[in-house]
């Protein structure tokens, strides 16, 4: 099975940011680094504007700027650790690579704690591997020459590193722990990493997590330089010197030379200057120094503090709580009290800090924390820049609206709290007005009283037997009396009503089964009418540009009528009487082309309007009759024929100006069931065609390709677009007993509905479709102390209403959630582990059952069973419960007469701690934490007892056991597993960011795919997409950075061509820093130290989709590269484009 990897939602977590300026520009910029992009924004009075975006291949580890040359520096780890020195031109907004520096070979052991890059003026230092650092010196003037060195350090367990101030010292402060766990700080020279007498090695009374350089402004004295080291609720200041900063440098610069001192004097000075203070935050998640007096600090609970530092003569620091923000991963002070907050787990924000912060008075020696009242705040969140759903801890597919289009329910959060989010791709629909009491509608048609008017005045609504007219005025809707617009009959159904352009009269055409009427909208009376020679009118379509209407009759006739102020003039006619099925089901006209659909034969003919009597230019044979056809060019040059079939499928076929079918341009979109209604919405952003029946979709053109976006409209029985007074351009549809006006927003976007879980941090999630409930395992931290308590919460899946919660015992943690449905029994399952001090792994836990109380719909505890080990996974197996407990898999029976859980009735031992279980009809897949995966089978057989002559006959016994089918013995360390739809392909993710697959063949696990994603996949979800021709999504995955991706399958012929395209594009297109695409996607096995195997079995769909965006010249150059045998020809290119279009539409 060949897979195509695609991204539905890009990573939303922000890793790093900085506020800076560039050469030859006076503007201020914000640079943001996410998991896959480097973005440069320019600061504007109204906010920030994106001016440059560059895709990143590799795992970002740091972002800095060199002070003088204004180069940006990005550190990447994987595919190979490297430093990219980048040059940004503000005039052309082009980002180029000035230098690439490889940090260290992959064979070295990665750093355990500190991994990143830091800088001081034109020097930078990076550490990614234990005992190794890379230093780079960039010249301050053009041509900006590079000097780099690979150096070794003795400190292996480095906690944090930074350059000290002033930059001229070229001194690196290193905080580390020794073999006994004690904390130390040492200064080393940047040029050789030798010990420096300026900062001798010193044992610390705490173990800092972070060390930062600080500059303290002193009135009438030299500035003070030092380092601040942060540990939980503690901070330590260590003075490193005095000096003056350059006038144009706010936090970095050169200090004046200091007189030489001997080693003992330096140690004595450092010892005297060391100050330990209490701080109100447990840890520092992000920080930035605003000036020589103020440091902004954000902690892991999302609280922002302003730390005011001074020397008077001893170091003091006063911390003021400013307010709550997203838990920051990065802080960047922009200007004018505006702060950028980037977050791994919350929305990125622009925050305004108020000027009127109370000054702190009184003695604050050795540090003081100033707390504010709960309602007091000194900041305002100006704007939230993104919807961050990272880190996604767990996810599941749900279907709660009957649309047949599953949505993704996911949980995310941090120490400050959590979220339950529901994500679906498509457009959002904002309801503007609802009119109740409009039942049995089949069609609605908007009319303008005056042809040149912008807004519509009437809405003609038709049932199968009657018609009524609604008056639209000033945001109100009223029923028009029958005496007004008497030219439109109220006693029969309406087939078509539309304005028509005529000289000297504001008129509309009105079609019923018996006649075609031209109505004067001002006088309200009929001007003229036309009746078919035989039969009744069955379908009609109007071409406004030529004032021509086509009428189809029940006798197989098709008439073309030119509309004139005096009446109708027949211009042509054609008879389909000779056809076996001659009755027309629907018509469409546009740009001189007529589309005719037939009942019975399921044909669609494309004719030229000027020559109806000639043979059809094109014929389309459909498996089901088209109840509606539509023609639209979406405001572009390419015309599309759109047909809505009775089986609930919408077909889009490109046609030429002569009515000929464009090869390989057919698209199908299933909408559940027919009949389907079609209308066109014209907006400044483009032209959309909306099709709606049981479900709905919007068709549009994006990047010169047909794009499909689902709409949240259900069971539509009439549809139109209207520009109503007081409402504006909107879509109006009839459903059930009401008429709804609304606007479509965010086409083809991921719509995210979020429910805040308060201070609870979610850990695991399950959805019970039968009970319509979510079950969420959460941890709730206790206020102001490190104790915590685990809960299981229950919520309604439509309203998010709280339906109860279950508090676990002290020391008991929730480890898994599952669902159970068998016959009339519906339960929610939970697995727990009891963690006791001194235990290497949980030795006990519980299986818990919950059920719904039928009286109040609340979820309540039913039963539990103590087990010997932590329950890592809990699933249903037939009528029983299957659980991964400790090192094995255990099977339990449920009581028949009362809700009880039996002792284990069968077990299977793995030898390693079980992590997850996937149950399929023909196998059970088990993953463990230390090795890989195993495939087992559950066997239940009856043993027939042979009766003894001297003994009574014994009852037959049932034997329950597990049998091992296959086992992978490699050290894979899977984080998530799933079984694909073929029930033989197993997929797993690794902590190294790899995807691996196996196929079960003849009792063996054969390794198949290997692909690197660069992110930790927390969950695979098997797709519920039904089998269909073309690409099909088989699994959805979610990651720690907020990415939602899919893996789709294509047939072997398409897979071959897409793989060839990927190889050719990889040879022509390099990543930032010259990274090869094949190198980036090759699997990484960092924990083995061996050369990784090549990528196989998975094609990077996000990469090859860029082929559709290339201009013809670039595309031709890529396809024709290489030898004649390697060239991709026109036929193969057409196959590739068709497959890429299908992948894009189905994404």
UniProtKB/TrEMBL annotation:
Primary localisation category: nucleus
Keyword flag Nucleus: yes
Residue ranges occupied by any RSE1/DDB1/CPSF1 C-terminal domain in the UniProt entry: 790-1108
Source taxon at top rank: Eukaryota
Subcellular compartments: Nucleus
Entry keyword annotation includes Lyase: no
Keywords: Nucleus
GO molecular function, one term: nucleic acid binding
Pfam families, alphabetized: Beta-prop_RSE1_1st, Beta-prop_RSE1_2nd, CPSF_A
RSE1/DDB1/CPSF1 second beta-propeller domain span: 442-744
RSE1/DDB1/CPSF1 first beta-propeller domain residues: 14-380
Record's GO cellular component terms: nucleus
Ranges for region Disordered: 244-266
PANTHER family cross-referenced by the UniProt entry: DNA REPAIR/RNA PROCESSING CPSF FAMILY
Family stated for the protein in its record: Belongs to the DDB1 family.
Designated name of the protein: DNA damage-binding protein 1
């Amino acid at each position: 099975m060949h897979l195509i990897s695609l991204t539905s939602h890009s990573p939303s977590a922000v890793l790093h940011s900085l506020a800076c300026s560039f050469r030859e520009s006076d503007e201020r910029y914000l640079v943001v680094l996410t998991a896959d992009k480097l973005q440069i924004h320019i600061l504007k009075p109204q906010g920030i504007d994106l001016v440059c975006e560059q895709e990143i291949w590799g795992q970002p580890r740091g972002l800095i700027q060199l002070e003088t040359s204004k180069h940006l520096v990005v550190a990447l780890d994987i595919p190979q650790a490297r430093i990219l020195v980048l040059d940004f031109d503000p005039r052309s907004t082009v980002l180029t690579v000035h230098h690439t520096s490889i940090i260290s070979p992959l064979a070295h052991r990665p750093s355990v704690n500190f991994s990143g890059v830091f800088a001081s003026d034109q020097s930078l230092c990076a550490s990614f591997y234990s005992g190794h650092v890379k230093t780079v010196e960039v010249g301050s003037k053009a041509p900006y020459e590079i000097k780099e060195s690979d150096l070794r350090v003795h400190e292996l367990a480095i906690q944090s590193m930074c350059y000290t101030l002033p930059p001229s010292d070229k001194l690196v402060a290193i905080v580390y722990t020794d073999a006994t766990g004690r904390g130390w700080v040492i200064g080393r020279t940047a040029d050789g990493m030798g010990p420096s007498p300026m900062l001798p090695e010193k044992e610390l009374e705490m173990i800092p997590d972070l060390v930062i350089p600080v500059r303290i402004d002193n009135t009438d004295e030299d500035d003070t330089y030092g380092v601040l080291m942060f540990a939980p609720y503690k901070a330590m200041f260590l003075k490193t010197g005095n000096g003056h900063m350059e006038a144009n440098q706010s936090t970095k610069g050169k200090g004046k030379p200091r007189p030489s001192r001997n080693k003992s004097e330096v140690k004595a000075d450092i010892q005297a200057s060391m100050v330990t203070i209490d701080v109100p935050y447990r840890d520092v998640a992000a920080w930035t120094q605003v000036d020589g007096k103020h440091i902004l600090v954000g902690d892991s609970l999302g609280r922002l503090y302003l730390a005011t530092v001074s020397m008077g003569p001893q170091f003091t620091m006063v911390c003021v709580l400013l307010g709550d923000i997203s838990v920051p991963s990065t802080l960047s002070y922009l200007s004018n009290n505006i702060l950028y907050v980037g977050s791994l787990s919350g929305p990125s924000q622009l925050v305004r800090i108020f000027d009127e912060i109370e000054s702190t008075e009184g003695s604050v020696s050795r540090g003081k924390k100033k707390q504010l009242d709960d309602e007091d705040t000194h900041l305002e969140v100006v704007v939230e820049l993104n919807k961050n759903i990272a880190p996604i801890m767990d996810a599941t597919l749900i279907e709660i609206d009957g649309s047949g289009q599953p949505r993704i329910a996911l949980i995310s959060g941090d120490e400050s709290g959590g979220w339950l989010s529901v994500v679906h791709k498509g457009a959002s629909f904002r309801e503007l007005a609802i009119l109740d009491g409009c039942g049995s509608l089949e069609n609605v048609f908007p009319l303008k009283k005056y042809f040149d008017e912008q807004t519509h005045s009437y809405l003609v609504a038709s049932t199968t037997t009657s018609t009524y007219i609604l008056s639209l005025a000033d945001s109100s809707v009223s029923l028009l009396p029958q005496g007004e617009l008497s030219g439109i009959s109220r006693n029969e159904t309406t087939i078509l009503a539309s304005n028509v352009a005529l000289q000297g009269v504001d008129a509309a055409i009105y079609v019923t089964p018996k006649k075609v009427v031209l109505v004067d909208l001002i006088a309200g009376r009929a001007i003229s009418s036309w009746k078919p020679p035989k039969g009744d009118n069955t379908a009609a379509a109007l071409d406004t540009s030529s004032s021509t209407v086509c009428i189809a009759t029940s006798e197989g006739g098709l008439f073309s009528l030119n509309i004139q102020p005096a009446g109708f003039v027949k211009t042509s006619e054609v008879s389909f009487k000779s056809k076996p099925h001659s009755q027309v089901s629907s018509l469409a006209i546009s740009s001189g082309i007529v589309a005719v659909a037939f009942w019975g034969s399921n044909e669609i003919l494309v004719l030229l309007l000027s020559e109806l009597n000639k043979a059809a230019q094109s014929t389309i044979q459909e498996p089901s009759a088209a109840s509606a056809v539509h023609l639209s060019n979406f405001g572009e040059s390419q015309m599309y024929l759109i047909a809505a079939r009775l089986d609930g499928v919408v077909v889009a076929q490109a046609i030429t100006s002569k009515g000929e079918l464009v090869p390989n341009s057919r698209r199908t979109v299933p909408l559940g069931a027919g009949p389907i209604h079609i209308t066109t919405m014209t907006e400044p952003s483009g032209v959309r065609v909306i099709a709606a029946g049981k479900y709905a979709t919007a068709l549009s053109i994006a990047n010169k390709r047909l794009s499909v976006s689902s709409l949240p409209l259900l069971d539509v029985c009439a549809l139109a677009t209207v520009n109503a007074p007081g409402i504006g351009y909107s879509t109006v549809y009839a459903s059930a007993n009401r008429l709804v006006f609304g606007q479509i927003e965010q086409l083809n976007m991921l719509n995210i509905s979020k429910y805040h879980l308060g201070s609870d941090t979610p850990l695991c999630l399950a959805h019970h479709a039968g009970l319509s409930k979510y079950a969420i395992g959460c941890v709730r931290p206790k206020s102001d102390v490190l104790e915590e308590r685990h809960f299981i919460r229950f919520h309604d899946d439509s309203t998010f209403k709280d339906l109860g919660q279950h508090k676990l015992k002290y020391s008991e943690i929730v480890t898994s959630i599952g669902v159970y449905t068998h016959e009339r029994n519906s339960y929610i399952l939970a697995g727990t582990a009891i963690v006791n001090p001194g235990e290497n792994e949980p030795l006990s836990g519980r299986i818990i059952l919950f059920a719904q109380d039928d009286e109040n719909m609340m979820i309540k505890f039913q039963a539990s069973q103590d087990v010997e080990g932590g329950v890592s996974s809990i699933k249903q197996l037939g009528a029983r419960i299957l659980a991964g407990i400790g090192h094995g898999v255990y099977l339990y029976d449920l009581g028949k007469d009362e809700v009880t859980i039996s002792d284990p009735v069968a077990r299977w031992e793995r030898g390693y701690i079980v992590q997850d279980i996937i149950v399929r009809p023909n196998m059970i897949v088990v993953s463990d934490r230390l090795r890989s995966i195993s495939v087992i089978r559950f066997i239940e057989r009856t043993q027939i007892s042979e009766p003894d002559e001297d003994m009574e006959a014994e009852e037959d016994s049932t034997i329950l056991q597990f049998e091992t089918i296959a086992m992978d013995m490699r050290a894979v360390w899977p984080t998530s597993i799933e079984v694909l739809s073929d029930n033989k392909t197993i997929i797993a993710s690794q902590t190294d960011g790899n995807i691996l697959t196996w196929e079960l063949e003849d009792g063996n696990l054969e390794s198949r795919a290997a692909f690197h994603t660069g992110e930790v996949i927390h969950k695979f979800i098997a797709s519920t997409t039904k089998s269909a021709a073309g690409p099909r999504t088989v699994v959805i995955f979610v990651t720690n950075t907020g990415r939602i991706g899919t893996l789709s399958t294509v047939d072997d012929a398409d897979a071959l061509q897409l793989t060839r395209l990927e190889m050719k594009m990889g040879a022509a297109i390099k990543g930032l820093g010259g990274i090869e695409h094949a190198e980036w996607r090759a699997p990484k096995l960092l924990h083995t130290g061996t050369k990784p195997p090549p990528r196989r079995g998975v094609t990077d769909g996000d990469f090859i989709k860029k082929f559709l965006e290339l201009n013809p010249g670039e595309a031709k150059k890529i396809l024709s590269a290489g030898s004649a045998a390697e060239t991709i020809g026109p036929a193969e290119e057409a196959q590739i484009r068709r497959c890429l279009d299908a992948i894009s539409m189905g994404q």
